[in-house]
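Technical annex, item 7. During the second reporting period the consortium partners agreed on a shared format for inverse folding records so that results from different sites could be compared directly. Each record opens with the tokenized structure and is followed by the designed sequence. A conforming record, contributed by the partner at site C, is shown below for reference.
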């Protein structure tokens, strides 16, 4: 991770940790960088950058600031407007853009925001380019302003977003007619995309939390507050429900009984479906260290191998790309289907779950048979200094003691968030009470040492 950019972009409270000036400078550098690169390669025409945003009030401010910087440096800026993160990745790839930018803080509250950078393949930007952006932010280099006919322009590119919707619809190989589907759009970027896709495929679609006002994104809704969707599915006799986060790059599901279907469940369900059709190249599913032990055990019993990466969908994608894997993701619902996308895509994930249900002619709850989750307790602790917490001798001792208590019946995982001032303390074992005891012992030590914000 860099000074400003973490595992999922440059994120912070709007105009506090991440300001309009930051956005303008990022636009200035990228506009110059890709214009200069294009000129040195002898290519005709201006460089192009495509931009999307979620529904936060501050997203408009950051969009205009980015555009101002981009065009001032001689590059054209194409605006998708409010759209899911995966749509930016898709359009950057298929429409030959030099890079893509998404303005979003994902599942965070409305007052936070972020800037995610993607390369021309729709992948997370490489560390080398990110490092150059950070150098410019720190004033370590200067870039010239474009002049006369070199100044860039702004292009309304809502047609790109519509093409992404068409692409998703094209992936629906079965009719959804007669299926009652509930969608929780988190008052975020999926609010006018997801329903259009499901309606086009014939579903009886019910939508909640699709009235964004700039302040209600992720507010007691979406994939981080899935209890409302659980109740809605039961109250309205739905066959399945899907919950997205603010920028719709993740998806969690609810079965017809109101049970939560996590990202680990999704990996299990789709991996078996692929293996049965001999489509699971390398016979390997890529997960992260945060995935439940039950996933690895259940897949192993099905004859499917697994690989573990650090937390973050960029690490999952990097492993998948290097080793030729077709399926990977995170328990939180970032699922990557490498045949169709280069990043997590919540709406695509829901379409793939619908495909398995219809192909198997089974209910969602039935697709989970054979998969048993280990009890897992996770507590997020907001701290002043993540590095100091993890290097503290007493905290380390508390972690070692908890690990000794669990021994071979589970595991302890303590790590820093890549996007927030948070330490995540997780315990996993066959006994939930044991998990809670171990997590509490570590969290209490962090509190005693005075690290809490």
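Designed sequence (site C submission):
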């Amino acid at each position: 991770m860099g000074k400003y950019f973490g595992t999922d972009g440059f994120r912070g409270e709007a105009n506090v940790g991440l300001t309009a000036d930051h956005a303008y400078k990022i636009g200035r550098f990228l506009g110059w960088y890709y214009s200069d690169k294009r000129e040195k390669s002898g290519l005709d025409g201006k460089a192009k950058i495509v931009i999307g945003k979620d529904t936060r009030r501050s997203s408009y401010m950051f969009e205009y600031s980015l555009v101002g910087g981009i065009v001032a440096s001689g590059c054209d800026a194409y605006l998708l407007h409010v759209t899911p993160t995966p749509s930016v990745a898709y359009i950057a790839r298929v429409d030959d853009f030099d890079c893509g930018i998404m303005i979003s803080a994902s599942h965070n509250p409305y007052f936070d925001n972020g800037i995610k950078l993607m390369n021309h393949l729709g992948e997370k930007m490489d560390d080398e380019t990110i490092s150059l952006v950070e150098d410019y932010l720190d004033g370590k280099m200067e870039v010239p302003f474009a002049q006369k006919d070199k100044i860039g322009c702004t292009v309304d590119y809502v047609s790109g977003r519509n093409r992404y919707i068409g692409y998703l619809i094209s992936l629906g190989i079965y009719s959804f007619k007669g299926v009652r589907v509930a969608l929780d759009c988190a008052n975020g970027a999926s609010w006018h995309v997801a329903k259009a896709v499901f309606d086009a495929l014939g579903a009886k679609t019910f939508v909640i939390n699709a009235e964004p006002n700039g302040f209600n994104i992720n507010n007691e809704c979406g994939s981080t507050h899935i209890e409302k969707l659980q109740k809605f599915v039961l109250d309205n006799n739905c066959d399945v429900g899907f919950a997205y986060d603010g920028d719709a790059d993740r998806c969690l599901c609810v079965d017809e009984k109101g049970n939560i279907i996590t990202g680990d469940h999704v990996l299990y369900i789709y991996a078996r479906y692929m293996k049965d059709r001999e489509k699971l190249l390398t016979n390997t599913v890529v997960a992260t260290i945060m995935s439940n032990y039950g996933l690895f055990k259940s897949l192993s019993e099905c004859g499917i191998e697994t690989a573990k990466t650090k937390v973050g969908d960029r690490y999952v994608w990097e492993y998948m790309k290097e080793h030729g894997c077709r399926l990977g993701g995170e328990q939180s619902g970032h699922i990557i289907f490498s045949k169709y996308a280069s990043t997590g895509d919540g709406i695509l994930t829901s379409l793939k779950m619908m495909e398995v249900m219809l192909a198997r002619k089974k209910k969602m709850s039935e697709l989970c048979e054979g998969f048993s989750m280990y009890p897992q307790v996770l507590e997020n602790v907001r701290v002043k200094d993540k590095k100091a917490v993890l290097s503290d001798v007493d905290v380390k001792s508390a972690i070692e003691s908890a690990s000794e208590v669990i021994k071979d019946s589970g595991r302890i995982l303590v790590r820093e968030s890549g996007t927030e001032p948070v330490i995540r303390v997780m315990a996993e074992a066959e006994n939930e009470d044991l998990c809670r005891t171990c997590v509490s012992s570590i969290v209490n030590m962090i509190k005693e040492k005075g690290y809490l914000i």
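The first strand starts at residue 5 and ends at 6. The chain has a mean pLDDT of 96. All partners now use this format for quarterly exchanges.
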